[in-house]
Amino acid sequence: MRVELHGQTARPAAIRVSYTNMHDIDTVVVGAGVVGLAAAAAIATRGHSVCVLEREPRPGLGGSSHNSSVIHAGIYYPPGSLKARTCVDGAAQLYHFCRTQGVPHARCGKLLVARDESEIPALERLAETGSANGAAGLEMVGAEFVRAREPHVHAAAALFSPNTGIVDTDAFVRALVRQCETHDVVVLWGTSMVNADVSPSHVEIDTGRERIHARSVVNAAGLFADDVSAALGGEQFRIHPCRGEYAELIPARRSLVNGLVYPVPHAGGHGLGVHVTKTIQGSVSLGPTARYQLGKEDYERDRLSVDEFLEPARRLLPGLVLADLRPGASGIRAKLHGPEESFADFLIARDDECPRLIQAAGIESPGLTASLAIADLVSTLADEILG
Known about the structure:
nine-stranded mixed sheet; 8 helices; about 375 residues; FAD/NAD(P)-binding domain
């Protein structure tokens, strides 16, 4: 079966390629975000040859770098789900990885705040869910505890998550690239899958420059994972792009916040609500919002005005005024469910239609936190194929 995917971008001049023979490879990973890079390194660590294809000129330019950069504890996800399991396991791995690889991070803790007593039962339910998932140290706290940590935050009570943290995402991506280099992973930047021939014994991928015979393929293509799956004759599913936008506190007002402050999520919502995040670099973001759209690369058209962030932010920081805010970044979540549903789990499995294809799709939040745990699952599946 021959299929075609999207076109090719110009490849940068400086690329590290360790293999001289690109004809036969054990595994091709499509996508060099945190999941693709972590999976590539994990598979290579098991002694397999790996090549990564990345359509962008640098790694991590998609969802990996367009998010809140939070290390989640595992509070929100249904017990037993892949999101819950990989979040809790992945957080532990990520903290260890950051310590050993010199990636800037902080286990700063997070407050999920109830504005009034009516929201306290929702916090208690989140505490039960998080505890069932294995999130460590969750504690219901009162207004005095909140004021001691966050004097400018209004709350009747809060759920305190001491294991939540923040990470320098760009530094994490660079560290994963170094891990790939250490294990002789070939990474081809600015390189797309143009054509593919699928047979029972292998997949032949044509990039327009190389023809690569692979014994297995990992689909870690983020927003384009549905296109990649279809191109390889795999399971049919749809990625629903959901844009999240941010505002920021101006530098003079960053001292209003010391760490991470989240609202109680709205029932049936598509995110965790507009929350306040102090980053490793010291900036303070407000967001993200959630809006489904058709475009997978449309980060800027019809952006929300800054004043639309003011009231949601004032629910957490009542003293804010419009002059305290400025425009921030935006990102696009790769969701496996549309606006009519509130939850879909990660898709991490060998494909039923294309047995040499491993899906790592629908990796939205907590995908950054879970990336190393997802990589473990993917590398185990690759072993099943490669023997």
